[in-house]
Design goal:
Elements: H1 7-14, H2 19-53, H3 60-85, H4 87-105, H5 111-139, H6 146-171, E1 175-176, E2 179-180, H7 184-187, H8 189-203, H9 217-240, H10 245-268, H11 282-302, H12 305-312, H13 317-323, H14 325-345, H15 350-366, H16 375-403, H17 409-452, H18 455-464, H19 467-470, H20 473-483, H21 488-497, H22 507-539, H23 552-564, H24 567-583, H25 601-613
Length: about 625
């Protein structure tokens, strides 16, 4: 009689990792996730200062969409390559490219060169989050993932607190060691990236069950041809004109590229960058569609909130970042509660549906704000929006990973991330286009109201007689331009390029500009709220979902071992075992039916026990 096996021994034999092994791997993953999430919070906090310094606030969309575009397009390629060759080498490549792009960003001399460098940075970022989520999906069973969710949330919480403080500090300093303060935001990624790289090299030792596929380079090329022109026209359509020759050319090239991508992927079959057969699974198809829509609403709603805080409420970059904490707190709190409920009950379908509905409510509440809305009320609306997002983001990733074969965790996670980021990229481009196409008319309308009630005239009189204001040529120039209606349009154009001057104007003059920006942003929240409602309706069609109780890595290893086992001996043993079972009157079946990831754990346990007894 053999002694019972210890938990660690069983973990080693069945492919499941021990708690200690998982924590070691998580340490490396969290260092890279911290690098990516810290960069996002720092840059979003300081982007207004950067844009004002480079005289290009109206070109901000280029910087934002360039990063999202390259990270989005590279994400499925990283997922496929990591399924074939392993996660670790491409995780390392992603960190190196990200740090290199950060160094280039410090050299930017205009918003357009910064956009190019942020695009290079995005090529690395495409690996960081998607592969981290894929590795977590590899090593932790979906039902147990909530136990470790606190560690991952700690990364986002710390970056959400540290990012605004650090970003605000550097954005508020003119120069350090002869280098512009905001450029240190990107230089900071170098030591953090070096630490993350070291941690990943030392800790990320995850076994990879190789998928014998070729790399779908044709799919990667056609997806670039399809998406880049469409994203470009989404960002530039307001400038070119939606029916201009340049816009029409982008429509044609983009649609042709997407059509060619579908043809290439259909021919590639299982080796496709994004295997089209995955969409035959109802769960995967619905979650993917919902992810695109949620991405549009989420990014579209979130990216204007720091601008609102800074332009309308006069917050500096550090303050505006800290004002985002209710949104972060809502996301974290809801995510923790959701994770624990999923772990205890195994139920997951309801959470993204409820989450998108709450997100829509938060966005509709934000639609009601203007320049005079209480800051506390705005932050309460942000909290509601954060609670909604916290209920849907992690469950959507879990559902996708649970719906596919364990060997396709990488491509499935990357595909889900890709489509969510694609929605976000489209949302940012379209919503910033709405903002800057509407803000001019809104400001003009508000200036007209201020003229009618006499407040603008009083503000102009105060400004012209203020000796201190004369020391600020930009602000005093706007007051002089408003005093002369013939040249007033120049003031409007100046403010859409450098909004920092608004906070230096007399209150009676600043208010129409603040209200113009606030009302233009509120329209974005209305559109984003309607999009979130659509996401709720789409996700309501999700079928019932049963979460796996085994990790993808362990299941993939068992599948590979079963496929590689000698067939002759196994057949004879199986026949003898079946005869023995029937003789004893016990019919033990190891067949598992149903959708991938929906096995009956009890059936599997009984089958394994019977085999061990024999």
């Amino acid at each position: 009689m053999t002694a019972p096996k210890t938990a660690s021994a069983r973990a080693g034999e069945d492919g499941e990792l021990t708690h200690r092994q998982i924590l070691v791997i998580l340490a490396g993953l969290m260092s890279a996730m911290f690098l990516a999430s810290l960069d996002q919070t720092i840059v979003s906090t300081a982007i207004r200062t950067i844009a004002d310094d480079l005289q290009g606030l109206d070109a901000q969309a280029w910087v934002t969409t360039a990063y999202l575009m390259t990270s989005t397009i590279s994400t499925p390629l990283y997922g496929k390559l990591s399924d074939i060759y392993g996660r670790k080498p491409f995780f390392i490549i992603g960190i190196v490219i990200f740090v290199f792009g950060s160094l280039l960003c410090t050299l930017a001399d205009s918003m357009y060169t910064l956009a190019v460098y942020r695009g290079i940075q995005g090529l690395g970022a495409g690996a960081l989050m998607s592969l981290a989520l894929a590795i977590i999906g590899d090593i932790i069973p979906p039902r147990d993932r909530a136990k470790y969710q606190g560690y991952m949330l700690a990364v986002f919480a710390s970056s959400s607190v540290i990012g605004p403080v650090v970003g605000g500090f550097f954005a508020g300093v003119d120069s350090i060691l002869g280098i512009d303060g905001w450029r240190w935001i990107f230089l900071l990624n170098v030591p953090i990236g070096a630490l993350a790289l070291t941690m990943v090299v030392l800790t990320l030792n995850v076994k990879n069950v190789r998928v014998d596929h070729r790399v779908d380079w044709a799919g990667a090329a056609t997806i670039v041809v399809g998406l880049v022109p469409l994203l470009l026209v989404a960002e530039q359509g307001r400038t070119w004109g939606w029916g201009s020759p340049a816009a029409l050319a982008c429509y044609f090239i983009g649609l042709a590229g997407i059509g060619l991508f579908l043809i290439v992927e259909a021919r590639a079959g299982d080796e496709a960058l994004i295997p089209l057969r995955l969409f035959r699974d109802r769960t995967f198809a619905i979650v993917t569609a919902g992810g695109v829509i949620v991405g549009m609403a989420m990014f579209g709603g979130m990216m204007t909130l720091p601008l609102y805080m800074q332009i309308v409420h006069g917050a500096d970059p550090m303050e505006s970042g800290l004002m985002m904490l209710p949104l972060v707190a809502g996301m974290m709190g809801a995510s923790i509660v959701t994770g624990q409920l999923i772990s205890r009950t195994g139920r997951i379908r309801e959470f993204p549906i409820i989450g998108t509905a709450i997100t829509a409510l938060g966005l509709f509440l934000l639609w009601t704000i203007d320049a005079d809305t209480s800051l506390a009320l705005v932050m309460f609306f942000m909290l509601i929006m954060g609670i909604g997002l916290g209920n849907c983001m992690q469950p959507l990733t879990l559902i996708v990973q649970n719906a596919v074969s364990p060997r396709e965790i990488g491509v499935a996670t990357a595909s889900a991330t890709f489509f969510r980021q694609l929605g976000g990229t489209i949302g940012v481009a379209v919503f910033l286009s709405i903002l800057f196409s509407r803000v001019g008319g809104s400001i003009t309308e508000e200036l007209g109201k201020a003229t009618a009630d006499g407040s603008l005239a009083r503000g102009i009189q105060d400004g012209l007689s203020d000796p201190a204001l004369r020391q600020d040529p930009q602000a005093f120039g706007i007051v002089e331009a408003l005093a002369d209606p013939a040249t007033g349009a120049g003031a409007l154009e100046s403010i859409t390029k450098d909004s920092s001057v608004i906070n230096r104007l007399p209150a009676l003059i600043a208010h129409p500009f603040e209200q113009g920006f606030a009302l233009s942003m509120s329209e974005i929240y209305l559109v984003a709220g309607l999009i979130a409602v659509v996401a709720t309706v789409v996700l309501a069609f999700l079928p019932p979902i049963v979460l796996r109780t085994g990790s993808a890595q362990a299941e993939a290893a068992r599948e590979a071992a079963a496929a590689a086992a000698p067939t002759g001996t196994d057949v004879e043993a199986a026949e003898a075992a079946t005869t023995h079972d029937h003789t004893d009157g016990a019919d033990v079946s190891t067949t598992v039916t149903g959708e991938p990831g929906q096995e009956d754990p009890a059936t599997t346990t009984r089958a394994t026990s019977a085999e061990t007894g024999r």
